[in-house]
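Whiteboard transcription, Tuesday session. T.W. wrote the structure tokens on the left side:
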């Protein structure tokens, strides 16, 4: 192991600008290192030990980055929490992850305070003012800014939803490696795309840092010595401006970003110098072929695609691959395998759709506290997230359909069972089904189909009442956009919902059922 890893790089060159906050504030590597070290010393004084967890409900920027860097050198699990969640949803993650410390930003004070009881008062820390939380300064004041003893690699533990509706933490065994050595191993991810280490590389963080891929790609770029430039809220022209101003070389995007960028006026699109772009990587949702082609025509051969899961493994499509195989999500990474099988777990011939299974060399994971769910997605040493696809003769993967229940809206995975469970408790609902329907901008929008309780007439007022009942119980991004009513829900005699029968009419005339 040699020259990569943030902590090594920061000690060698403390003056390097490692991150730029959304307000334009620049942070040197030395300053970030000192902050992360003080957090480690402070939390160790509270009794945190390797294997413990901490959660951060913080916006994009260096506050979250410092927590990440602290955890990754102290052997802790760091869980960035989705800031769209409500208090009860946050409290569930705090309890399930067994968080020994909870950091919240004042922007999310209301929901953080609602969740606070899941963590003892002396272990709640606020960036800014949050009722019932201590200022972060109380944790770090007087703590040394030098490296802690006994440094050991930690990990992130992101929460990914399951069809049962409750999110699960994807937890990997800790490696026991030196943090910089572990970080250097992480850099294989960007190396697969040909990304080079060191300056003058700049990585633009365009999406919320609680997403696995955003943490992975941004964190890995930093470990390679790139400068991170954070966006607070994504805006198409603002992104182009930042790319030109900071000479951005790489980023991680979703197809919704492409749609918004392409809808800018021609004059705006060509106002900014984008000649620095080299690796603009996208995933998280299927990208329509015309949209991808238009981005390649505009930005040139710097648009890379991949397919992967929080659980590990994946494929990559270089610009050249995609031009030769339009619509593909690529071939397996060098350390990954892809298997497409029928319902009996037997491999299917090229061109035949089946369930997509993956594995990644040397990577094991479990869904924390759910051995049954961990086992259910396994086929020997491969796993699946339930996607349907096929391989062509050359081994390129194409996705036909996501697992029938999952909705992908704006690159975010949304699981209907959680929404159905909340609507089902309403006294005026006899039965309910939630699924995705086509949306030009977001890929999918959430549709609820409701069978009203006896004596309740279907009407716009009932739809509004049902949606209003979700207030404070479900994040707004999970609320159905529209509610339709049905006399009787189509179910098999055994009670299984025939969701495809409900869903298919909405997808007629669309070239892929995603």
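and on the right, the sequence the group agreed on:
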């Amino acid at each position: 192991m040699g020259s990569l890893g943030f902590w090594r790089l920061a000690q060698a060159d403390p003056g390097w600008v490692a991150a730029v906050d959304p307000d334009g504030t620049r942070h040197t590597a030395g300053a970030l290192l000192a902050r992360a070290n003080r957090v480690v010393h402070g939390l160790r004084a509270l009794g945190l030990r390797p294997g413990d967890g901490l959660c951060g409900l913080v916006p994009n920027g260096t506050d979250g980055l410092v927590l990440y860097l602290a955890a990754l050198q102290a052997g802790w699990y760091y869980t960035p929490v989705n800031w769209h969640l409500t208090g009860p949803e946050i409290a569930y993650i705090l309890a399930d992850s067994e968080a020994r410390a909870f950091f919240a930003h004042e922007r999310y004070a209301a929901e953080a305070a609602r969740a606070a009881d899941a963590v003892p008062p002396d272990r709640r820390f606020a960036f800014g003012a949050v009722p019932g939380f201590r200022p972060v300064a109380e944790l770090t004041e007087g703590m040394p800014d030098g490296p802690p003893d006994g440094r050991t690699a930690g990990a992130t533990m992101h929460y990914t939803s399951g069809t049962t509706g409750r999110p699960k933490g994807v937890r990997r065994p800790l490696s026991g490696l030196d943090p910089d050595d572990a970080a250097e191993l992480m850099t294989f991810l960007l190396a697969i795309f040909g990304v080079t280490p060191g300056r003058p590389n700049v990585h633009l963080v365009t999406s919320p840092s609680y997403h696995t891929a955003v943490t992975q790609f941004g964190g890995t770029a930093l470990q390679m010595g790139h400068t991170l430039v954070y966006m607070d809220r994504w805006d198409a022209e603002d992104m182009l401006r930042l790319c030109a101003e900071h000479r951005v070389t790489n980023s991680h995007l979703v197809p919704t970003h492409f749609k918004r960028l392409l809808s800018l006026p021609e004059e705006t699109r060509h106002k900014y110098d984008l000649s620095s772009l080299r690796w603009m990587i996208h995933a998280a949702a299927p990208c329509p072929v015309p949209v991808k082609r238009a981005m390649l025509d505009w930005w040139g051969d710097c648009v890379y695609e991949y397919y992967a899961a929080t659980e590990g493994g994946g494929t990559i499509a270089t610009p050249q691959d995609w031009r030769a195989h339009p619509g593909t999500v690529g071939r397996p990474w060098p350390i990954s395998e892809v298997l497409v099988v029928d319902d009996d777990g037997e491999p299917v011939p090229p061109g035949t759709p089946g369930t997509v299974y993956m594995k990644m060399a040397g990577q094991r994971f479990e869904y924390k506290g759910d051995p049954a769910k961990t086992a259910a997605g396994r086929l020997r040493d491969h796993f699946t997230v339930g996607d349907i696809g096929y391989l062509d003769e050359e081994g390129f993967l194409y996705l036909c359909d996501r697992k029938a229940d999952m909705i992908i809206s704006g690159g975010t995975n949304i699981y209907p069972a959680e929404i159905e469970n909340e609507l089902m408790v309403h006294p005026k609902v006899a039965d309910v089904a939630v699924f995705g329907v086509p949306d030009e901008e977001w890929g999918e929008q959430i549709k609820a189909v409701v069978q009203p309780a006896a004596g309740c007439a279907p009407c716009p007022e009932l739809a509004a009442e049902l949606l209003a009942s979700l207030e404070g119980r479900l994040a707004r991004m999970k609320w159905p956009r529209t509610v339709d009513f049905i006399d009787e829900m189509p179910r098999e005699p055994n009670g299984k919902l025939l969701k495809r029968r409900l869903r298919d009419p909405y997808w007629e005339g669309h070239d892929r059922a995603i």
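Someone added at the bottom: The chain has a mean pLDDT of 90.
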